[in-house]
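Changelog excerpt: complex records now keep ligands as SMILES alongside chain sequences, and the structure block spans every component. Example after the change:
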Amino acid sequence: MAHVNLILEAQDIAKSYGQGSSKFDALSGVSLAVTAGESIAIIGKSGSGKSTLMHLLALLDEPDGGHLLVHGKDAVTFKKNELNRFRNEDFGFVFQQFFLIPNATVLDNVMLPLTIAGVGARERRERGMAALEQLELADKAKSKAINLSGGQKQRVVIARALVNNPKVIFADEPTGNLDSATGLVVEDILFKLNREKGITLIIVTHDADLAARCDRQIFMRDGREETTGTAK
Amino acid sequence: MRIQDVVASAVRNSFRNKLRTTLTVIAIFIGAFTLTITSAIGTGVSDYIDTQVTAIGTPGIFTISKATTPGIVSTGPATYDPNAAVSSGGSVIGPNGPTGLNGSLPALSKEDLATIGAVPGITAVNPLIAVTADYIQYANNGTYKLRVNTNAAISKASLAAGAQLDNSTADYQLLIPNTYLENLGYTDAVSAAGSVVTIGIKDYQRVAHTVTATVVGVQNDTLLGSGAELNTALLNELDSIQNSGKPATTAEGYSAATANFDPALSATDVQVLQKTLADSGYSAKTVADQIGTFQAVIDGIVGVLNAFAGIALLAAGFGIINTLLMSVQERTREIGLMKAMGMGSGAIYALFSLEAVFIGFLGSAIGALVAIGIGTPLSSFLSTTVLSGLPGLNILQFAPASIATIMGIVMFIAFVAGTLPASKAARQNPIEALRYE
Ligand SMILES: Nc1ncnc2c1ncn2[C@@H]1O[C@H](COP(=O)(O)OP(=O)(O)OP(=O)(O)O)[C@@H](O)[C@H]1O
Ligand SMILES: [Mg+2]
């Protein structure tokens, strides 16, 4: 495997919450290398540390132990604004909940990563509309986010995650609060992005079927990786 | 994030909870409105005083009185001295005059006048003659009380019609205030100039006399008091009538005197001269000083109002803190989301502090606009009614610079108030914010 294709590499990372007697090890020594273009499922029981691992990989938090390498360099050597830029330009996020700004329009919500990046209003608008068209939501651009159905909201969230042409999309339970038919639509969209645009997918899920569609699976239990390989 | 985007979102965010923003804006509005009004009063009054000083002030002349001993209240009355002179003529100078002189103040004796005259730099000293006339009458239009303004000697009149008094002529001349015109039976100021009036006065034995004099002009009221002004010839004539039949034993004394000095003297030299006189126990005031005492009073009132406005703004500042803290609380997830998407802490801080500044801007701009909207017609209404006696006084004058300053101050207060919520937002941990509950 060519080293240049290694986007993220976790080396024995650990994370604990709380202090003293209430200290809890959410993650105790997980190693994982993410290669450009692959799709990885992180699966496991509730509370096993899936979201914690994803947040660390997404540079949203710092591990207490081990190292996290970004393009081969330890994340701690990067400045805060460099990490911000990585997240803004290279990552797309689909969180366990929609996290849409309820009273802003669908388009404004989708353009948010571009607004943060400081992209000009016109370009922002064009790219936002393109992302919405890709998800067949162009007619909802002017609607308030609060007025959409659950499936529509999740598609808006995905439009927001891909509007900045990210290298990696992190998705935490992307189908968790959707019915199975809508869930399938969302899955298809994600895998199509992976296939057609080579976007790396890191998907946290409970759903074995979704996990099975990924190139590989990381099974989590009590903050540790159980086995790697194909789905059971 | 681009500056314009930060500003636009800050503005949009402040309108998200309209009721809450409105209530905070009202608090700021009250403070800004009051400050705008008080600063307009300050500007209006000092503007008026400046024009008054240049219009009526005569350079090179002091009004001199005995310096009053400070601390009269705390130390009790001074020992009675039967030989001390009291002001003569039984008159009270300038009833509403700024000098506040009255018969009970220590008077200037002939020796005092000599002492003052001997001070280097003083070219002449003249006692201020105070006369109490009974009435004034024009044609057969009835008799009206005549109040004599003693400040004629130290100021030019602000003329509505006619000419200034001529103090070198032997003719009896006077200027009447424009408020006298209607009662005396004149149609307007111009028709009064040049007319002849009769003045009634009693001598020391209460015997009535009359003197006829020419009205050379009609004057506007000034801050130095209202009343008719008489030329030297008329003043001396009335004074001699007033004092005829007076027992010779009464000690001569004057409530005040005027002292001349070189009008070309610089302001610091004038101060030195005033200091010299003060050291000898005399209070010497120029016209500008006397008018300045009004400024001090107005400044005091404006200061108190400003303090109230300051308290209102302080309370409004806490209102802003409260509003924004609630808003930070409500938008915890949004902040977390934006930080997760790579928005820096600085931009988050700017977003909330600009929201505070915008709320401050709204409150102060509305406050200033409403103050101007109400104040401008009110000011012109007052100048034609209550303040019509003081032509040229626009009590409320809105100076763009002071309005800009007020808005700047209010926005700065808002910025300071926004510091706490903004830094709270900026410090937020995206993971915490995004954890589902
Ligand atoms: N901020 C925190 N403070 C304390 N404990 C935490 C915190 N975040 C996570 N944990 C704990 O760490 C463990 C792992 O949490 P995590 O969110 O990674 O689980 P998960 O595998 O994503 O679960 P789920 O499938 O329910 O989303 C849990 O036991 C959780 O209680
Ligand atoms: Mg989770």
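Chain B has two domains: 3-54+293-435, 61-286. Residues 3-54+293-435 of chain B form one domain.
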